[in-house]
Amino acid sequence: MSPLVRVRDLVVAFGGRPAVRGVSFDVERGQVVALVGESGSGKSVTARSLLGLCGRGAVVEADELAFDGLDLRSLGERQWRGLRGRRVGLVAQDALGSLDPLRRVGAEVAEPLREHRIVDRVRPEVLRLLADAGVPEPEVRERQWSHQLSGGLRQRALIATALAARPELLIADEPTTALDATVQKQVLGLLRAKAAAGTALLLISHDLAVVADLADYVHVMKDGAVVEHGVPADVLTNPRHPYTRALLNAVPTAERRGRGLSGTIPALDQPDRRVPGRELITVTDVVKRYRVRGRPPITAAAGVSFTVRAGETLGIVGESGSGKSTVGRMLLGLVAPDSGAVEFDGVPWSARAGAERRAARRRIQMIYQDPLASFDPRYTGRQIVTEANPDPERVAELLRLVGLAESQVDRPARELSGGQRQRLAIARALAADPAVIVCDEPVSALDVSIQAQVLDVLVDAQRRLGVAYVFISHDLGVVHHIADRVLVMRDGAVVESGSATAVLAEPRHQYTKDLVAAVPGTVLRQAQSVLKPG
Amino acid sequence: MVTALDTPTPVRRVRIPRAGIAAALVVLAVVAIAALAPGLLTGVDPNHADLGATLRPPDWDHWFGTDQNGRDLFARVAHGAGASVLIGLGATGLALLGGIVIGTLAAQTGRWGDEIISRLLDVVLAVPGLLLVFLVAAVMGASGFTATIGLAVGTVPGFARVVRAEVLRVRASTYVEAAHGLGHPGPRVVLVHVVPNAVGPVFALATVSLGAMIVASSSLSFVGLGPKPPTAEWGAMLAAGRDLASVAWWPTVFPGVAITLTVLAVTVLGQHLQARFERRTV
Amino acid sequence: MTSLAIKSEPRRVSPAAVRVLRVVAVRLLGAVGVLVGAATATFFLIQAMPGSTTDVLLARTQASPAVRAQVIAEYRLDDSLFTQFFAYLGKLATGDFGTSFVLRRPVWDAIGTQLPRTLELVAATLVLTVVASVVLAVIGAGRRRWARSLFSGVEGLIVAVPPFWLGLVLLGVFSFSLHWFPAIGSSDFSGLVLPAIALAAHPVAVVTRVLREGLLRTLDEPFVLAARARGISEVALRARHVLRHAALPVTSLLGWITGSLIGGAVIIEIVFSRQGVGRLLLSAVQNKDMPLVIGVVLLAATVFVVVNALVDAAAWLLDPRTREH
């Protein structure tokens, strides 16, 4: 029997520029096949060619492009419509944007049912589909709008719309990006169950860890071509292509602590000689509540205490809404606690004012998730760093340290790539000669290879300059890689703290155990531990 | 009738070709010369009545023809630029000044100040554009001056709202927080980061609304609420031409073309500036 | 569709309906507040004008002592400013705009006789605007780049043309040269065509552009890809998903259109020598007939503010995302 999907030498070009160059793959019935790659690798376009929805101006050519023996190259619009939703379902990227915000969730799930006339009575089927996708209280949710659902529920509802007309193939494009780890685990579980029940799954992801856990077969894509393919265990333990190897090395995990991730800074493979210094920040029993009219107050900090020492990295992990960002902002004196104290250099922020407060502010810098928003839009890269330190030699030195070329810094910062912007933000933070830098999700928006470079720059700067980091992240792998000590936060409270290795390798608190268990990548970690460095 | 007061946020994503911008600059240069030194364009006295040459159609001697008093329409259109453009410029300038001051005040005076100023602006906004000018003209008498004041008063709330929103937006921005984090004193941060970034969009908006102001001011002159005759003014010239429309087309055509070209040029440049500004911030 | 209605529950007032009523009520209350503010402003405007308040209200006409006494009594002008103020507001609140001593008749009466002609023009313009914008936006939302540039260029040109001049040009071409339409002062339907076109030109250009860009922008949204991936047709896509999104920004334009029609109608009536409130207002301004000027201005403000309040509430209803607070 022929495979469900058969693609040979697929080329997709936009205005003469190819986005996909000669991709071939098969998907068998009931199989999970993954296309993995970074942004711009052409993985999404490849998948959409199976729906005839590559976008405006796309020219699709292939030696073979077949679904269940049906030649997709010669389909007319009407035939495509019979295929879409009915035989191939799509869970598109960005669940919030993929559900029409002006229509109720139930109407979205019902749409493919009506279009393809699947059932006579639509509503019971909608409720069944929502329940089947793990949406609790489907009668309530059906009447709501997508913005009223949490991220995880939205993703489940979107999966329900894609599965409504009972397709044989489900395409899931980054189905768990932007979800908390525990929710991600549930959604992946749902997809796995669907695959086990016989629906073939084409999974598109940037996340090697997710892919390795779920897929039967993996294709690694780079610049529109497949560079390597095989069974996950094989590809991950015995990568043949240098790109796959670099990608695997770039994933921050416990196994890669104390080593460079990107291979761009050789000094990182030298032994770590840092010695934690004196206490710089002392947080004592801080409480912070936010009140929104007509809703229960939100507790962002419920009696949090900890210290930060000179030259160390303190990781703060937690899911969204755990209060980790509020705590970070309290360290900078940007948010005043309702009670308790944040002392910097032995003096609480509440006791500092005027010039003294400003001088202290300089010594705690911040790096944001979106660096561009933290730059004055009128400034060039050099102006941004110069504002923090007027000495041109020091500025040039720091720009070299973070790996920005002279030719890149005299242009407006918005012309830089995401990774370069974050390097610039690091240079500005360092230019103020701070004792501490608070990093709030600094690498969450970056591709894994870029993330590796930025993390390496941070580690390198700390080793050279002795600056302390407070590293806030939802990503346990990143924190495990970079932090010396860790705080685990939930609902404004610290549930567990201690050395990173102790807390994350042998968690004692149930919540930490759940978090650690939710991290995908069992297969990947096993692979990394046997993988040769470099 | 679009007055600057009522103009909705100008639509984005308009890419203007280079040639269009060049043409707009040429038109504006000619209008500027006409407004500042009309003598450079024509040696003819706009108020010289040649009763032997009334209502002549356009020819080599009179490019735009003559009116019923035998006055040269080309000279009148050229000399009319001053009054027409001056009211628009004056009203936009006053509205910009008022908008920046009031908008900044609203953003900086805390909750109560903001609330009071915003409600007062609502009251002014309740009177649709041109009617406000009618009210001012009824109180102060009709003249170019009252037209300017009326248009400015009507436009201030719109500008003030934009300034207020911009100041609040920029003040809450991450880059202002980052500048404070570098230990710079508050006033320095306001001067270096908040003001330049908040005021930019307002100036771009002002260029676009300048066109609408010129349309509105010519409308007012047309109904007799602008500068007094015999001052040459495009709107007033059209009003005079209206009575001759059944016998002569040229008195109603050339001043209108002059207004349209001027407004078009101003709008094109305004949109170009706005697009440039948005590219910078996005 | 019937399956959706199967579930039968006892009818009761849903909390959603209560919330809707509350939102509308709050907006209207705000509108009343603004109008009281506007009325207050006109009171002080009268006070600030040179000459006695009596003279101002009489529009400096030669009035008999009896009439003067009547005005003084009516507005409590020999009382304290405080009492005068509430007497003034009280009169306005009961719909009494006073008397025009230039026209020698009550202000309401003068406006009332002219109002139907103006409303006729405004209604015709509104219909024209809605029909023309939707048709042009859908035609213009094609994929070809040159067509889009052409449309946006023409829109830009139209907005630069002063409506009163457009009126003059239309008069010159279609009335004086071609004699298709009556020149001036006609009161039948054919006399409505040219003024409505001149008045509708700007709103049509602006609404078309906003609607067209809304259509194009919405087609780039992720939920459009998701909807297409469900196999629905392009027509269903536009009807169920895209048009509603494109129409959202237009609702916020409705307030602007109302304002521009009220102001524009005044000028257009003068261009076409039509009877109407516009001409009434212009002569009142020239005669400094303050009761009449204020009457027209407050009436226009009332219409404008109420329309804006309703538009505000409508936007709240159309977009569930704005309903959270």
Automatic annotation (TrEMBL), chain A:
Q: Which residue range or ranges hold the ABC transporter domain?
A: 5-248, 281-516
Pfam families documented for this protein: ABC_tran, oligo_HPY
What GO biological process terms are annotated to this protein in UniProt? Answer: peptide transport; transmembrane transport
Q: Which positions carry the signal peptide feature in this UniProt record?
A: none
Superkingdom of origin organism: Bacteria
Q: Which InterPro entries match?
A: AAA+_ATPase (IPR003593), ABC_transp_ATP-bind (IPR050319), ABC_transporter-like_ATP-bd (IPR003439), ABC_transporter-like_CS (IPR017871), Oligopep_ABC_C (IPR013563), P-loop_NTPase (IPR027417)
SUPFAM superfamilies in alphabetical order: P-loop containing nucleoside triphosphate hydrolases (SSF52540)
Record keywords, A-Z? ATP-binding, Nucleotide-binding, Transport
GO MF term set: ATP binding; ATP hydrolysis activity
Database matches in CDD domains = ABC_NikE_OppD_transporters (cd03257)
Family recorded in the similarity comment: Belongs to the ABC transporter superfamily.
What is the protein named?
Peptide/nickel transport system ATP-binding protein
Automatic annotation (TrEMBL), chain B:
Q: GO CC terms on record? A: plasma membrane
ABC transmembrane type-1 domain ranges (all copies): 81-270
Q: Does the keyword Cell division apply?
A: no
Keyword annotations = Cell membrane, Membrane, Transmembrane, Transmembrane helix, Transport
Q: Where in or outside the cell?
A: Cell membrane
Tell me the GO BP annotations in alphabetical order. transmembrane transport
Query: From which domain of life does this come?
Result: Bacteria
CDD domains per UniProt: TM_PBP2
Membrane-spanning regions, if any? 21-41, 81-107, 119-139, 145-163, 202-227, 247-270
Q: How does it sit in the membrane?
A: Multi-pass membrane protein
Gene3D superfamilies with a match to the protein in the record: MetI-like (1.10.3720.10)
Q: Which PANTHER family match?
A: OLIGOPEPTIDE TRANSPORT SYSTEM PERMEASE PROTEIN APPC, PEPTIDE ABC TRANSPORTER PERMEASE PROTEIN
Family from the record? Belongs to the binding-protein-dependent transport system permease family.
**UniProt protein name:** Peptide/nickel transport system permease protein
TrEMBL record, chain C:
- Alphabetical list of PROSITE patterns matching this protein: ABC_TM1
Its cellular-component GO annotations read: plasma membrane
Q: Which Gene3D superfamilies match?
A: MetI-like
Q: Signal peptide: which range, if any?
A: none
What InterPro entries does the record point to? BPD_transp_1_N, MetI-like, MetI-like_sf
| Domain called ABC transmembrane type-1: residue spans | 115-315
Q: Where is the protein found, in the record's own terms?
A: Cell membrane
Query: TM segments?
Result: 20-46, 121-142, 154-180, 192-211, 246-272, 292-318
Keywords, A to Z, come to:
Cell membrane, Membrane, Transmembrane, Transmembrane helix, Transport
Molecular function terms from GO? dipeptide transmembrane transporter activity
Give the principal location in a single coarse category: membrane
Record has Transmembrane helix as a keyword = yes
Q: Which SUPFAM superfamilies match?
A: MetI-like
Q: Which family does it belong to?
A: Belongs to the binding-protein-dependent transport system permease family.
Spell out the protein name for this chain. Peptide/nickel transport system permease protein
Ranked from the top, the taxonomy reads:
Bacteria, Bacillati, Actinomycetota, Actinomycetes, Pseudonocardiales
